[in-house]
Design a protein that fits this description.
Blueprint lengths: L1 E9 L5 H11 L5 H13 L15 H6 L6 E6 L3 E7 L7 H8 L4 E7 L6 H12 L4 E7 L8 H15 L6 E6 L23 H7 L12 E3 L2 E3 L11 E5 L4 E3 L3 E5 L4 E8 L5 E4 L13 E4 L3 E2 L1 E3 L3 E6 L10 E3 L6 E12 L6 E2 L3 E6 L2 E15 L4 E3 L4 E2 L4 E14 L10 E6 L4 E8 L2
Parallel strand pairs: 1-3, 1-4, 4-5, 5-6
Antiparallel strand pairs: 2-3, 7-18, 8-9, 9-17, 10-16, 11-12, 11-18, 12-15, 12-17, 13-14, 19-25, 19-27, 20-24, 21-22, 21-26, 22-23, 22-25, 26-27
Amino acid sequence: MEILRLATAGSVDDGKSTLIGRLLYDSKTLFEDQLEAAELASIRMGEENINLALITDGLRAEREQGITIDVAYRYFATQNRKFIIADTPGHIQYTRNMVTGASTADLALVLVDVRNGVLEQSKRHAFLSSMLGVPHLTLCVNKMDLVDYDKEAFEAVKAEFREFATRLNIADLTVIPISALHGDNVVNRSETMNWYEGPSLLHHLDELHIASDRNLVDARFPVQYVLRPRSDKHHDYRGYGGQIASGVFKVGDEVMILPSGFTTTISEIRSPENDIELENHIDNEGKDEGAESANIKGGKVEEAFSPMSVTISLADDLDVSRGDMICRPNNQPNIVQDIDAMICWMDSDSNFSLGKTYAFKHTTKWVRAKAIDLNYRLDVNTLHRQEDVTALKLNDIGRIQLRATAPIFVDEYQRNRATGSFILVDESNNRTVAAGMIRK
């Protein structure tokens, strides 16, 4: 069953958590204990009816303040597809959390209060969704019940947001008037807004075409594990496990191994469900590649595509290890050591500063990278570039230059999110301090 990942965004008190609670409640996908916990919490807070926001706001501080702090993930399904919802915070100091939630999303769902219109935080989250390459954006104009479901009020907010969106890289924009509190146009069409001719939110999510969003052109397979069974039956087996980042691989395809540049063909592809069970699963980074044992069970497939996790066997016995990239000879990623990127700084205890060296993780490969330049910090409210800066602080977004200690195999982020993204880790405390997107 197809999976749709969506991230909610918007300003504080626009009703993101209430909307998700309404989706889960009206689609009857809540467990009884979840519903009972929300009902009891609502009673303790002195509310007459169940507060649907409490279904997603699980932290005590969130419930006490009535805000979302952490990214809350919720799951539900319809007959057509499964959904993974990331409820991201609205406060400016939690911008990093929004970046985390939207980095893998297929759709960004931005809420605005119809009474307030498009606020700075709404623009900020729309811009971040655009920068992160989220293919689809849905604007939900919420709290329509507080303006008597007025069409003119909705059209004014819609026009304001569309004007701002023309400055962004948004390929698909849908605008829906809703009332999360009362359920209008959330799961079912609203009877009080008969002037609106579009679908309800759930119907839109259910029917949204996302298959073509995947990059099926650039074949990229970062090697995560080298699988060598120790049994006598399969003593000569050698497979390379991992998740296909993009593209399609077929048995018989000619492929190239990076960084060596040797070419060979694919002799076999095995699917994950009934293929290889790892025994004593360990991360073999820095260890003998044959340290893992596996039981070969079958599960052969003729082709595999993103985002499948598979094991690929090659016709020739080449030197392939973790962090290497399998691609096509006539369609290779860029092999670089100098990296031009946009990053979001995520650490509250340190700043991005020139001259420091970080651990750099890209797909399955770890290298070290030194900060050699800070071009500018981006004001996500005005989209203005501030070039007279020497550091990036918590939640800042900026363009930087890094120099890696070894070649990495990258694509531009806007073309390939999987091979165009990376994280920076502070080697002194092992904390993830930044998430980055590689430019051209």
